[in-house]
Amino acid sequence: MTRALMKTGRPIYISLCEWGDLHPAEWGFNVGNSWRTTNDISDTWESMISKADENEVYAHLARPGGWNDPDMLEVGNGGMTENEYVVHFSLWAISKSPLLLGFDVANATATRAVAHIVGNEEVIRINQDPLGVQAKKTRMMGSREIWAGPISGYRFVVMLLNRADAGDDDTVTAYWDDVGIPAKSLVEVRDVWEHKTLGRAVAGNISATMPPRSCKLYILKPVG
Predict the structure, then answer these.
(1) 69, 73, 125, 185: most buried, per Cβ within 10 A?
(2) CB-based contact 208:194 (threshold 8 Å)
(3) pTM score, two decimals?
(4) Integer Cα distance of 104 and 76 in angstroms
C-alpha cells in the first residue's frame, strides 16, 4: 500500500492501525505517517487518560513525518465534562497526535458546544509545531503531573495536570528543571486556553490551582 500511494506522485497521508499490538511505533516510520499505539478509545475519562498514558511510552519515537496515534478525539460526544475535554484536547495536541474529530460536525448544537476547544488555534499550533517533538511526563506527584517538551523558537510547552478523580482543588507546580529550561532563567508565560500572557517574566517555576480532572497549558519562552 505504501509503495502504491507513493507511485501516485501525490502527497497522501497514510495512517496505520493494528491497535498497537506489534508496537508499530518501532517500525511504522518506514511505511506510514502515523500509527495507532492503543486499542480503541471510548468517550470516558478513564479510557481517554489511559490512552494518553499508553501513547506517552513511545514519545521518543515520534518525529516529523511519523506520529503516535492514541485514536480519535472524543471531544463533543457528551461523555465527559468540559474540563475533561480540555485535558483530552491538550494531551493530544502536546503529543503531536493526529487531531481527528470523532463527533458529528454536522450537528450544530454539538459543534457550538466544543468549538472553543477544537477550534483553539493556539493549541492547534502546538500540535502542528515544525520541531515535531512529542511532550513527555517529566514529573509525577500522586495525582499531579507535569508534561513538557520543546517547540520551535526556543520555546517550551508545559501542561500542569490534576488527574485526581475527586476532592478539593489542588496546586500543581512545574519547575524550570522539569521543562528543560536553565533554573535561573526569566521566562515569559503564555496561557493558551486563556489566551493571555502574564504581565511579567517569571523566575523558577509556574504554579496553578485547579479542580480534579483539569489542566493548565502554557507556552514558556526564556527571555533572560
Answers:
(1) 69
(2) no
(3) 0.96
(4) 8
Report the sign of the C-alpha dihedral through residues 79, 84, 88, 89, in that order.
Answer: positive
Of 138, 156, 154, 143, residue with least CA distance to 217: 156
Lookup: cell for 6: 507513493
Task: Say which residues have a Cβ less than 8 Å from residue 176's Cβ, sequence separation at least 6.
Answer: 182, 183, 185, 187, 204, 205
Query: What does the alpha-carbon distance between residue 132 and residue 115 come to, in Å, rounded to a whole number?
Result: 25
CB 68 within 8 A of CB 59: yes
Surface-to-core class of residue 116, CB atoms within 10 Å of its CB (0-12 exposed, 13-18 middle, 19+ buried):
exposed
Q: Per the structure block, which three cell numbers stand in for 138?
A: 517529566
Q: Residue 161 forms beta bridges with which residues?
A: 145, 215
Q: In this structure, what are the phi and psi dihedrals at residue 221, rounded to the nearest 5 degrees?
A: -130, 110
Which element (helix H / strand E) includes 124? helix 121-127
Q: Which three cell numbers stand for residue 85?
A: 475535554
Is the backbone of residue 183 left (phi > 0), alpha (psi -120 to 50) or beta?
Answer: alpha
Q: How far apart are CA 179 and CA 120, in angstroms?
A: 23
DSSP at 217: E
User: All 3 cell numbers of residue 111?
Assistant: 459543534
Give pLDDT tens digits for 143-200. 999 999 999 999 999 999 999 999 999 999 999 999 999 999 999 999 999 999 999 9
